[in-house]
Design a protein that fits this description.
By secondary structure, the protein is α/β, with parallel strands linked by helices. The protein is built from 15 helices and 13 strands. It folds into two domains: about 130 residues, Aspartate Aminotransferase, domain 1, CATH 3.90.1150.10; about 220 residues, Type I PLP-dependent aspartate aminotransferase-like (Major domain) (Aspartate Aminotransferase, domain 2), CATH 3.40.640.10. The strands form three sheets. The protein has a seven-stranded mixed β-sheet, sandwiched between helices. It has a four-stranded antiparallel β-sheet with strand order 9-10-13-12, covered by helices on one side. Strands 1-11 form a two-stranded parallel ribbon. The structure holds pyridoxal-5'-phosphate (PLP). Pyridoxal-5'-phosphate binds next to helix 6. This is Histidinol-phosphate aminotransferase. It is an enzyme of class 2 (transferase). It catalyses: L-histidinol phosphate + 2-oxoglutarate = 3-(imidazol-4-yl)-2-oxopropyl phosphate + L-glutamate. Its cofactor is pyridoxal 5'-phosphate.
Amino acid sequence: MEDLKQRVRKEILQLKPYIPGKHMEELKRELGISEIIKLASNENPLGPSKRSIEAMKRAAETAHIYPDSYNYHLKKALAEKYNLREKQLILGNGSDELIKLIAETFLAEGDEIIMPDPSFSEYEFASTLMGAQCIKVPTKDFRVDVNAIRAKIGPRTKLVFLCNPNNPTGTIVTRKEMDEFIDRLPGGTILVLDEAYCEYVTSDDYPDGIEYIRQGKDVIVLRTFSKVYGLAGLRIGYGISSEEIIDMIQRVKEPFNINSIAQAGALESLKDEIQITRSREMVEKGKKYLYHALTHMGLTYVPTEANFLLINVNRDSQEVFQELLKRGVIIRTGDIFGLPDYIRVTIGTMEQNERFISALKEVLLKLTNSAQKRASS
Ligand SMILES: Cc1ncc(COP(=O)(O)O)c(C=O)c1O
C-alpha cells in the first residue's frame, strides 16, 4: 500500500471519495422495507416526461451505433432556445463532468479557485485533482458572500465557482450583487456559474447567467437535465460560454461522452413545457406546505429558491438521518456541509412531503424522549 501511495499522483491522496445519497435498492435490502422515499439528491419525483421516454426507447433501437459526438440536434435546440450560437455550447456527462473538464482545461499546480462554503463539493474535488488550491469562503447568514469572495481573488485565482441558487442553502446571489461582482472580476479570472436549479427560482431578483455571456463577460454557465427535466440517471448537462472558452474545454472532452439515449431523451424533454410547469408547481406547493408544517413544529429553515430545503433540526443530524432511514425516508445530513444540526431535504410530491413531515415528527419526539430519559437516569 505504501508503495502504491508513492506511485499515484500526490493529488490523488488528497481526494476524499464522494459520498453519494443512499440508493433506494440498497436501503430496501438493508432494512427489509418496501416503500422508500428518496429526498436526498434533489431529483424530480415526477420522472422524465412521457415524450422523453418514447424518444429514448426509439434511440435504444440504434444503440449499436456510436453516438453523435457533436450532439448536433441537442446543441441546435439549445442554441435556438437561448438564442446563442451552437459553438457556445458544450454537453457533459452531467454537469459534474463539465466541472471536471473546466478544471482540467484551466487549472494546474499553483493555481487557485474560490468557492462559497458550504456549496457543491465537486468544485473542490476537481480543483484538488488538478493540484490547485481551493479557497472556501464562508456564507453569511446562509447567503453567498460575494464581497468576501471578491476580496480573496488574487493573481493565482483562475476560477471562481458560484452556485446560484446555492446547494445546500437554496439562497441566491441577486442580480445587483452579481452585476457588481462580474463588473469587478479581474481579467485572468473566469466565473463558473452553476445554475443547476435555475428553473425552480421564483425571485424577480435572480440574474440569468446567460445574459453575462451575451455581454462578453468571462463567464461559463452550467445547467443540467438532472433536476427539473427529471433525467438524472441519463447523466447529461450543458455548459454555455464564449466560443473561445468552449473551444478550449471541447479539446479536453472525450468524443463520445454523451450516449445516444441521453441525447434523444434530453432533446425531447426540452419540448415538453407542460412537464416543466408541473414540476415547478409541485415544488412551489411543496415548499409552502413544508414551510407551514416546519413552523408549526417550531423548526427553522432557510427559505429556498431551489427544490430542496435546509432545515435546522437542533440536534445531531446523523441521529435524525438514521431514524428517518428506519422509516423509509432518505435525506442528507448537514455534517457533510459543516452544518451538523441541519438536514437537507428534497421537496417532493405532496404525498412524499407529508410522509417526510410525519416521519420527522415521530423521530424528533423519539429523540427528545430518549434524551430526557438519559438526562434523568
Ligand atoms: C449545484 C449542483 N451542480 C451540479 C450538480 C450535478 O448535476 P449533474 O447531474 O448534471 O451532474 C448538482 C447535483 O446535485 C448540483 O447540486
